[in-house]
Design goal:
Strand content: 25-35%
Shape: globular
Number of strands: 7
Largest sheet: 7 strands, mixed
Strand order of the largest sheet: 4-3-2-1-6-7-5
CATH architecture: 2-Layer Sandwich
Oligomer: single chain
Structural class: alpha+beta
Low-confidence stretches: 3-18
Distance between the termini: 51 Å
Number of domains: 1
């Protein structure tokens, strides 16, 4: 009987340690951003969760890859800028042949913005915000490859 209890305790401990966060099912605040379209039609997605976990899921990936864990203050700053810049009030679904998108999730609500990054003179704030997000992703990927 004691052997079964020890075995059961061990299995429960392993289960708890291996429980991974699935970005799509994460219930906290998160930003999903990426790009798609063009000749290939591929879509690349990046997930920033409010716990700082940063994931990617590229066009042919079957699962998520954790890129990094960002510092809390940087994560909160990026999430808070969504509202500070007024993006939470923006309704935009104007993709071009190629497009960028940002989705913001909070309290069971979802907002998706899609735009053509090559449309001159339009969406400058969105393009800048997107560049910041992608710059962080690229920096973290470069750090992994060192």
């Amino acid at each position: 009987m004691i052997k079964y209890f020890i075995l059961l305790s061990f299995l429960i401990a392993i289960q708890c340690k291996s429980g991974q966060v699935v970005p799509q099912q994460y219930e906290g605040r998160k930003i999903v951003f990426g790009d798609g379209g063009g000749f290939s039609g591929f879509i690349n997605r990046f997930y920033l969760l409010d716990n700082g976990y940063l994931y990617k899921k590229m066009h042919r990936d079957t699962g998520f890859t954790q890129i990094a864990t960002l510092k809390t203050d940087l994560t909160q700053q990026l999430l808070n800028q969504w509202e500070q810049k007024g993006f939470d009030q923006l309704k935009l679904n104007k993709p071009g042949n190629a497009y960028h998108f940002i989705e913001f999730f909070r309290k069971g609500e979802q907002q998706r913005i899609v735009w053509d990054p090559y449309e001159r003179g339009m969406y400058e704030d969105l393009n800048q915000y997107f560049k910041v997000l992608r710059g962080i992703v690229q920096k973290e990927i470069n750090n992994q490859n060192k």
